[in-house]
Amino acid sequence: MLAAIRMRELGRKLASPLFGVSSSPSCLNVNPEALTPQDRRRLDAADGWTRLGNYAEATAELDQIDPAAQGKLDVLNARWHVRYAVRDWDDALKIAGTITESFPNCRLGFLRRALCLCKLGQFLTAISILEQAIERFGESPLLVTAIACCHCKLGNLEGGRLIVEDAIERWGMTADLNPFRGRKLFDIDLGWLWHDDE
After folding, report:
1. 107 and 115 in contact (C-beta within 8 Å)?
2. What are 174-187's pLDDT values in tens digits?
């Protein structure tokens, strides 16, 4: 019973917005003028098609962007979203690798790579990538929690729980987790936070 209460309390603390994955990380749109107005419209159209679930049209829009702009972070991120949405983990992983190599000061590539590696079942490699991100950018609730999720996927639930508890203690996060009930974080079902031992 005590374990169930403790896990519910952990669940409430885990709900902090700091644990959410932002759809617009700070390294995106750092230079929106870098794209021509025509390419910006195509990128916006690709985003719209992606949100509608029409990935073929999204890809067609991205393919029409000037070849010189294909390596821009916004374009690479849009391509990653399309490849990820169609479950092409290998291609999404390559794009995430390009983001990491081309934009080493942006943690987005590291997170994208780790997520793809998780989809490919390569959790230890994902942990290694996330640890590299921590070395480069410092600890953050998002990176630490992503590592905890990888441990959980490897079957190390206790290790994952301890990592999250340590993160909560260090960052002092408190909130009610009820809005997150039934949701997933880094593809880990958070339902175990509400598990009763009764």
Report:
1. no
2. 543 333 344 444 44
